[in-house]
Amino acid sequence: MNKRKNMTKKDKIIPTHNGLERIKIFSIDEVFTWIEENPKRIYWENGNYVLNTKRAKIFYKKGLTCVNCGVEGKFFALERDRGGGLHLDLYGYIDDEEVLLTIDHIVPKSKGGINKLINYQVMCKICNELKADDEE
Q: What is the C-alpha separation between 62 and 78, in angstroms, rounded?
């Protein structure tokens, strides 16, 4: 059972990767339904939050699984950075610990890689950091 789905107000601030503040958890189905209904922006809670869905759309099109180790994304988390910016991040689990899934450039930008869907792949944060600037 995922206790995170039943968070109370006192549980609102949960530190995550890079010290982000966790605001709310969303299922994969919720986020993918929003993308299908409105491909430009995500709105929820009476329109209080509005996000560009570029990263979520990449997960929608490229999948939810790390191409290297196979860890699978299980939920999205709305998180706020120290500057107040909102992020919709995808998380999975390794040994019951949350792990962030990232969008990686197959050919790194530093080596001429482009910011296009064809050059993106899903990787967990651990594998992405190990890959660094290598091509895969």
A: 20
pLDDT band of residue 4 (cuts 50, 70, 90) is: very low
C-alpha 109/C-alpha 107 separation (Å) is 7
Residue 8 confidence class, pLDDT cut points 50, 70, 90: very low
Give the number of other CB atoms < 10 A from CB of residue 40.
Answer: 9
Q: Is 58 exposed, middle or buried (0-12, 13-18, 19+ CB in 10 A)?
A: middle
Count CA atoms closer than 13 A to 84's CA, side-chain side. 0
Radius of gyration, alpha carbons of the chain: 15
pTM: 0.79
